[in-house]
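User: Some background: our group keeps a shared notebook of sequences we're curious about, and every so often someone picks one and asks for a predicted structure to add to the entry. Today it's my turn. The entry only has the sequence so far, pasted here. Could you supply the structure so I can complete it?
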Amino acid sequence: MTPEQMALMLTIVDHSEDDVPRLVYADWLEENGESEHAAFIRLQVTKYRTSPRDPKFARLLQQEMDFAFREERRLRDRLPVFPGLIWGAFDRGFVDRLTIRGLEGVQSFSQHALKLVGETPWSELQIEQLREGYDLTPWLDLEPIPNLRQVTIGTGWGHWALGPLLHSPIMSTVRRLVIKDVWIDDATQLALHDSKQLKNLEELRLSRTGFQHVRLRRFSPARLPNLKRLIFRENKLTDEGLHELIRSGILDSLEVLDLTDNTIGSDGMDSLTEVQFMELHTLRLSQNQITDFGFHKFCFKTIPTLRSLELRACNRLTENNLVQLSQAVWLPQLTHLDLSGQESDGIMQPIIESSRLKNLRSLSLRNVPLKAESIRKLAESPHFENLTNLDLGTTELDDDALEPLLKMNLKSLFVHGSKITKGMLRRIRETFDRE
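Assistant: Of course. Here's the predicted structure to add to the notebook entry:
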């Protein structure tokens, strides 16, 4: 692979959501005699940009299938083949994921890691079906892989293997680390805290890991200087554990903090007021045990960059809490608010009647027993004039309450599970992007 081609591929890796680098690479391929591959990239990019409801989509899908029969097979034949290593599907012209499966995959990757660089800008490494006794210590001697940006570790892993991986030089280019359904023991926690290879990590996602909360204070901003997104879901995080996490100092510079589905209560919310939150724009606290005391203090904490708040299914919130929320100092800043799963129509009135939500673009009230009158009040309020996305699934929404909603400037309306008749559903399909 030429240096120019490698530079183009790394640009695709670093801007994976952007189609432009892919199209630039397609132009380079065409200029260098690879017109079929270039056409395949352009076709998949065009299909990706096209809505399934667009009449052109079916034609693009058929063209993709025709291309895949000849061009995808040819491109796959170029990819290195080793036991236990599985290439993923083509997405917008390229394979972007490599899976290591079982002992064969571990051994193949140990021996041939750098041979896997080239031909396609893969950026994600997924590791499956590791069993006790598999030795990853040879990974400590591997060289960094320039294109590697994400490592995903899931069910079937053993905690004994995580230490060598976290200390391996291949982690030095990784920006997103996902660990889920893996029991993390004390030694592995130490490896996560002490590794010198995670300085480029921007997102850490830990879900159902059995993480010991007393160890959370070991997280160090010095070891994770670029961490911007921490997703700590379904770990039974307690108020005490959250306090330890706050003491580490790791939360101060986050942009996204997701603590969904833990056991955070009043003391935890109270301790959140101690965090500086210099750059936080998204906070997810859904499915916790939040109650009056700590919530009140949190509502009056200044968070100048906050734009998105999720409090889904926090069933201990009271009408008093929603009054506090309607008066929160940061409420006028919000563009997204999720209050799905609250227990009664009555506690939602302070939000529906609030005049401080003029910047709100997205509002989710799914699974709230909202009455039709409350929905009409929301639709006719002048304070939701900038709302473009509204979720009223599984509410008391009926045909009469829908009429004022159709006069809003909505681009998306979700009504699944409501009392809308089939005739009105057809009208919604004609009006909005989706039901």
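Suggested note for the entry: The mean pLDDT is 88. The first strand starts at residue 85 and ends at 87.
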